[in-house]
Amino acid sequence: MAARISIGGTFEHSDFDLCLRQPTLVLCDIEGAEEALLDPLKSPSLKAADILVEVHDCFNDGLSEEIAARFKTSHSVAKINRDVDMSALPDWMETLSDMDRLMALWEWRIGPTTWLWMQARDRIL
Q1: Is residue 53 within a helix (H) or strand (E), and if so which, with residue range?
Q2: Is residue 3 in some structural domain?
Q3: What is the reported pLDDT for 22?
Q4: Which terminus of the chain has a smaller tally of CB atoms within 10 A, N or C?
Q5: Per the domain annotation, does 2 fall within a domain?
Q6: Is 125 part of any domain?
Q7: What is the pLDDT of residues 38-62, one digit of tens each?
Q8: Short-list 63, 2, 1, 72, CA closest to 28
Q9: 32 CB burial (10 A radius; 0-12, 13-18, 19+)
Q10: pLDDT per residue over 92-105, tens digit each?
C-alpha cells in the first residue's frame, strides 16, 4: 500500500492534474486553507477526484456550504457532522473521569468542524 501513497510538499492548483491520469482520493485537512485550494475553477482536474475534506467553519462561517456548492455539479456531496460514538472508544477510557474523557476527545477548537465527502460523478473530464 505504501507504494501507492504519495506525500509531498506544498500543493498547487496545477498539481491536481494527476487526478486525470489515475483514480485519486484527495484527503484534505489544512486548517482553513481548503477555502483557497479546493476550487474547481482554478483546478478543473478536481472534478475527477473523490475528496474528503475537513472544513473549518470555525474560522470562516459558512465555508462548508461554499465548498459544497463549488462541487455540487461534479460531485455527490455528503456532509459529515461531528459525532462521538462512545462505543468505538477503547475500553481503558471507561476508567477516566468525565472531565478526562472530554479532554482526551476535545480538539481545542473554537467550534466544531465538518467533513465533506465528495464523490466525483465522472472520473474523466
Answers
A1: strand 50-55
A2: no
A3: 85
A4: N
A5: no
A6: no
A7: 999 999 999 999 999 999 988 888 9
A8: 63
A9: middle
A10: 888 889 888 877 77
The answer to whether position 38 is within a domain reads yes
What is the number of structural domains in the chain?
Answer: 1
Residue 60, classed as helix, strand or coil, is coil
The number of residues making up the chain comes to 125
* Identity of the amino acid at 28: C
| DSSP reduced 3-state for 23 | coil
* Closest by CA position to 50, among listed 69, 31, 78: 78
Residue 114's H or E segment, with its range, is strand 114-120
Query: How much is the pLDDT for 125?
Result: 47
What domain range is 43 assigned to? 13-83+91-120
The pTM for the full model equals 0.77
Rounded to a whole number of angstroms, the distance between the first and last alpha carbons of the chain is 27
Rg over alpha carbons for the chain, rounded to the nearest Å, is 17
Of 55, 2, 53, 45, give the one whose Cα is nearest residue 26.
53
